[in-house]
Write a structure and sequence with these properties.
The protein is mainly β. The chain has one helix and 28 strands. Strand 15 and strand 16 form a beta hairpin. It is globular and about 55 Å long.
Length: about 475
């Protein structure tokens, strides 16, 4: 799985993660729960038959800005600030109480210290300490002797995106000393933080890396090279120019990617990307009409989400589940987007939405441009999406499946082999087998039947290990095209 929880870009253009963090393999997640001044860590288990949460309260309430990061073994890393020290510990459930393993502290007063996204392996955790002239990378969990300083990068760095499956190559958005344009650099953690340029679309443009998928090589960036801040996409290690699709421009809204579909080896154009959409003033579009509205399908008052593929010409906009933790979600290899949500009735839930098929993203001659929220045609059901009434759906605990298209497949279609195999010869002495009786035609399922709308259970496969080429400087002219370019 690939998961990334990203907040909307603030005025300075940098991207910050939301308070709900999902492990790279999708097994666990963590967040601060509670209300008022009674904040406590909470761990979510996402890889079981149904999601569930475990509170991990300490001896006193946590500060609202406390950072959490889940590890693959179920423990949760917590980052507390006790000025000027940044204290790190591991939390884990021990029956009715919470166990805590202190890891050590980092004294740093020159600037902020923030946790980097979960590592691909899930056994280590890193933090970024931003100073006025340089940025330090610290290994705060998974080392032998507490926090370890592993890299020093010149300039002020923000962001943080892993470029490979080993946790060695890290992309950071670096601002040069004395100010200037922001450029993404690739940092090699096994070579003392050796930094090489990664993004340089124009000499004076601000080019930030938001998302990267090591399987396909797809990267999603934000740059002002076209004259304004826009989302673009490219391929790591490719000579193709970066493209800025019109489909990712949604009026006055802010569009931020937060997850990419894994397993699309060497097929970046078919890699589905989930984006968070924030409307001006916290308004959201109308949701897809449903004959029996449910609280779990109600649109969020501030944010909604969308699905997009580089090969498509359309951004599919959908209303988010009620209680969605904006900017949090992950893809399965089969193309199912899992969105965590929490409401008063369902404090720990996951809504699943199937990605649109490739043929539904638009033909080659279809004009590109921003799309409208999907609506059902008058007098009929929606052609692209069919919400499942939750009071009729066979829910497994708190696992909600919404937005399933009729006839959708739970696994990608296997490509036909290029090798032709001749059928075995049939002996002439064998009498012909009489044809089997025609199968009984089953009547079509009623639209309100959950069995006709809900997809099959999706199981996570073992991640495909691929060798990612060394990061290559992306240069060349800015292309506003949406489709794949030459060579």
């Amino acid at each position: 799985m690939t998961a990334c929880a990203i907040e909307t870009a603030p005025e300075d253009g940098a991207v910050r993660r939301c308070g709900f963090t999902i492990a790279a393999d999708g097994s666990y997640a963590a967040r601060l729960a509670g209300a008022g001044e009674a904040w406590f860590p909470e761990r979510w288990t996402l890889d079981g038959p149904e999601p569930y949460s475990v509170p991990l309260p300490a001896g006193q309430p946590e500060e609202p800005g406390t950072e959490l990061l889940p590890l693959a073994d179920g423990r949760v890393l917590i980052h507390r600030v006790v000025a000027p020290r940044h204290v790190f510990s591991l939390l884990y459930p021990t029956g009715p109480a919470t166990g805590e393993l202190p890891l050590g502290a980092v004294e740093f007063e020159a600037g902020p210290v923030t946790l980097l996204p979960p590592t691909p392996g899930g056994s280590a955790a890193y933090a970024l300490a931003v100073g006025p002239h340089s940025t330090s990378v610290w290994l705060v969990a998974g080392g032998a002797f507490g926090p370890e300083h592993v890299a020093e990068v010149r300039g002020r760095c923000t962001g943080g995106v892993w470029l490979d499956r080993t946790g060695r190559m890290l992309a950071l958005d670096r601002e040069a000393e004395g100010g200037g344009a922001v450029k993404s650099v690739a940092v090699d953690l096994e070579r003392g933080g050796e930094a090489t340029p990664l993004l340089q679309i124009a000499e004076r443009s601000n080019d930030r890396l938001l998302l990267a998928d090591p399987d396909s090589g797809l990267i999603v960036i934000r740059s002002d090279a076209p004259g304004e801040d826009r989302l673009g996409w490219g391929v790591l290690g490719s000579a193709r120019p970066v493209r800025f699709p019109e489909a990712l421009r949604v009026g006055d809204c802010t569009v931020t990617p937060f997850a990419a579909q894994p397993g699309q080896v060497l097929m970046p154009e078919s890699c589905a990307v989930a984006v968070r959409i924030d409307g001006p003033g916290g308004t959201s579009p109308a949701s897809t009409p449903s004959p029996t509205p449910s609280p779990a399908l109600a649109p969020s008052p501030a944010s909604w989400f969308g699905m997009w593929r580089p090969s498509g010409r359309r951004l599919h906009q959908l209303a988010a589940p009620a209680g969605w933790l904006p900017g949090a979600g992950l893809w399965t290899r089969e193309g199912v987007l899992r969105l965590p949500f929490a409401t008063g009735a369902v404090p720990c839930g996951v809504a699943e939405v199937c990605a649109p098929m490739l043929e539904e993203d638009g033909a080659a001659g279809e004009p590109s441009g921003p799309s409208e929220p999907e609506q059902a045609p008058e007098g009929g059901a929606a052609t692209a999406w069919k919400p499942v009434p939750l009071q009729q759906a066979p829910l497994m605990g708190r696992l909600h499946r919404v937005g399933t298209r009729p006839g959708a497949r739970s696994a990608p279609e296997t490509r036909a082999s290029s090798v032709t195999v001749a059928p075995p010869p049939v002996a002439p002495s064998v009498p012909p087998v009489p044809p089997s009786p025609a199968p009984t035609v089953m009547p079509p399922a009623a639209p309100e039947s959950a069995h006709a709308a809900a997809p099959a259970m999706v199981r996570t496969g073992v991640p495909v290990m691929v060798k990612v080429p060394a990061p290559t400087l992306l240069t060349g002219p800015v292309s506003p095209l949406n489709g794949p370019g030459p060579g």
